[in-house]
């Protein structure tokens, strides 16, 4: 067996069964370790109550390489991913302009459904790598010295979860005060692990517990913009309502709309604007006027009734960037994915960077003859530099996407006009 620590089989506890936790389970399982994956929510594969429009994400080379490492690239990308070769910019006058991602080699990124991806990774972890999964297990404490973990199980899960889409579709949303969802009657469960992998998202409990230790650095930043998801349905003859091989963007300076294609020929449309601006729209006619002025072509595709229903159904969600270091506690614990480096979504790299963590960690643990502690130390020394850089690029792209893309196209057009 190609294990770390001179072939020692480790008992690994992965906290969080989101995208990164479930991929990490595949990596550890593939190496023959005993893997236990604990997830706060219900099993998304079985839960009929799992609400929300499952949002889609842009998968890039960084993420694809990590999927390929456990043999999943083809299954998930070729069979499910929708290629996007360029950004399609929509102006207020209805004109459009394509800006290719890679005009030289024609490379693309892929739109993938979060729910499908997460379900497939969980299936793969259980079926191919014998990973034990435990749902409705909320980590509440860790004893890092002796590797003990403490979980709470809800007594009445159905009444305990919030009802909005965000909690189900995006666990990056703040889950709210603990007592709201986890009543006193909740059961306490204890577990033991050699290695604890915190993949429990932007509001990570593992990270919070690590932060109580000396020399842990941490910073977080909310941006003034939030987001709300809308959708464009397929046409009557079940086709895409817009050209599908593009990531569509309606950049409008201080706010923007984007749309990514879904397998069922619908589009997930995300409106990004300041929380203040979201709050200022309180009536249907105000909302319709706002769309008629700023996104007239999108409004036709979304439909007035659908827009009003979706806009007022749920509150806008917040966006957060997190930086911290170190990522490990000796040989006992390590954090990956959003738990280590949550970022604003404008660079489309949060999941991709989290997937890359799984790949890099696996490499350090198994291919360099390092002890477990040295491998985790090496991960913790090298990874934050790159992760912080991606967080910064994402923050920069926050301005670029809604503003500069349009401005540079405007300048480019001007230049063309003068030629
Ligand atoms: P999460 O997906 O947050 O999963 C963490 C899991 O841990 C959850 O299932 C949660 O229930 C569980 N958990 C939390 N606390 C506990 C606990 N105490 N005990 C047990 N379990 C727990 N990234 C891209 O690469 N491309 C994109 O196009 C893209 N678009 C985005 C668009 C938006 C609007 C947003 C908000 C994000 C986007 N991202 C994108 C970022 C991406 O969603 C995240 O980076 C990714 O989900 C991180 O995965 P994760 O597994 O680390 O965390």
From TrEMBL:
GO MF terms held by the record: FAD binding; kynurenine 3-monooxygenase activity
Keyword Transmembrane helix: yes
UniProt keyword annotations, A-Z: FAD, Flavoprotein, Membrane, Mitochondrion, Monooxygenase, NADP, Oxidoreductase, Pyridine nucleotide biosynthesis, Transmembrane, Transmembrane helix
Pathway assignment: Cofactor biosynthesis; NAD(+) biosynthesis; quinolinate from L-kynurenine: step 1/3
Domain FAD-binding, residue spans: 10-142, 192-365
Protein name: Kynurenine 3-monooxygenase
EC number(s) from the headed UniProt entry: 1.14.13.9
Enzyme superclass (EC): oxidoreductase
Family: Belongs to the aromatic-ring hydroxylase family. KMO subfamily.
Membrane topology: Multi-pass membrane protein
Catalytic activity: L-kynurenine + NADPH + O2 + H(+) = 3-hydroxy-L-kynurenine + NADP(+) + H2O
Cofactor(s) of this protein: FAD
InterPro entries: FAD-bd, FAD/NAD-bd_sf, Kynurenine_monooxygenase
Biological process, per Gene Ontology: 'de novo' NAD+ biosynthetic process from L-tryptophan; anthranilate metabolic process; kynurenine metabolic process; L-tryptophan catabolic process; quinolinate biosynthetic process
Function: Catalyzes the hydroxylation of L-kynurenine (L-Kyn) to form 3-hydroxy-L-kynurenine (L-3OHKyn). Required for synthesis of quinolinic acid.
Pfam families, per database record: FAD_binding_3
Any Gene Ontology CC annotation: mitochondrial outer membrane
Protein location: Mitochondrion; Membrane
């Amino acid at each position: 067996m190609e294990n770390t620590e001179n072939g020692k089989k480790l008992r690994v506890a992965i906290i969080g069964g989101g995208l990164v936790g479930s991929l990490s389970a595949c990596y550890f399982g593939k190496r023959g370790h005993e893997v236990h994956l604990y997830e706060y929510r219900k099993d998304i594969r079985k839960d009929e109550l799992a609400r929300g429009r499952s949002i889609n994400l842009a998968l890039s080379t960084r993420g694809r390489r990590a999927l390929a490492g456990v043999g999943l690239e083809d299954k998930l990308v070729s069979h499910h991913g929708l290629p996007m070769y360029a950004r399609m910019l929509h102006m207020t006058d209805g004109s459009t302009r394509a800006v290719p991602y890679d005009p030289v080699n024609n490379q693309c990124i892929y739109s993938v459904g979060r729910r499908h991806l997460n379900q497939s990774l969980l299936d793969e972890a259980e079926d191919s790598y014998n990973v034990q999964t435990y749902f409705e297990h909320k980590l509440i404490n860790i004893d890092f010295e002796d590797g003990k973990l403490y979980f709470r199980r809800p007594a009445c899960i159905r009444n305990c979860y919030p009802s909005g889409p965000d909690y189900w579709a995006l666990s990056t949303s703040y889950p709210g005060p603990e007592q709201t969802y986890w009543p006193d009657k909740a059961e306490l469960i204890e577990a033991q692990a050699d290695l604890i992998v915190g993949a429990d998202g932007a509001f990570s409990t593992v990270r919070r517990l690590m932060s109580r230790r000396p020399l842990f650095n941490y910073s977080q930043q909310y941006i003034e913009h939030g987001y709300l998801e809308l959708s464009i349905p397929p046409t009557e003859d079940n086709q895409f309502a817009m050209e599908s091989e593009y990531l569509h963007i309606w950049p409008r300076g201080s706010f923007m709309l984007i749309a990514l294609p879904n397998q069922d020929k619908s589009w997930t449309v995300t409106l990004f604007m300041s929380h203040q601006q979201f709050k200022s729209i309180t009536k249907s006619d105000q909302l319709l006027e706002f769309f008629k002025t700023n996104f007239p072509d999108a409004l036709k595709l979304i439909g007035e009734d659908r827009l009003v229903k979706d806009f007022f159904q749920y509150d806008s969600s917040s966006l957060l960037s997190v930086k911290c270091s170190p990522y490990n506690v000796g040989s006992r614990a390590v954090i990956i994915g959003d738990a280590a480096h949550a970022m604003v979504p404008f660079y489309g790299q949060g999941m991709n960077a989290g997937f890359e963590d799984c790949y890099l960690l696996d490499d350090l643990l198994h291919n360099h003859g390092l002890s477990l502690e040295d491998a985790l130390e090496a991960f913790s020394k090298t990874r934050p530099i790159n992760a912080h850089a991606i967080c910064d690029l994402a923050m920069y792209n926050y301005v670029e996407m809604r503003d500069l893309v349009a401005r540079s196209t405007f300048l480019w057009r001007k230049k063309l006009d003068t030629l």
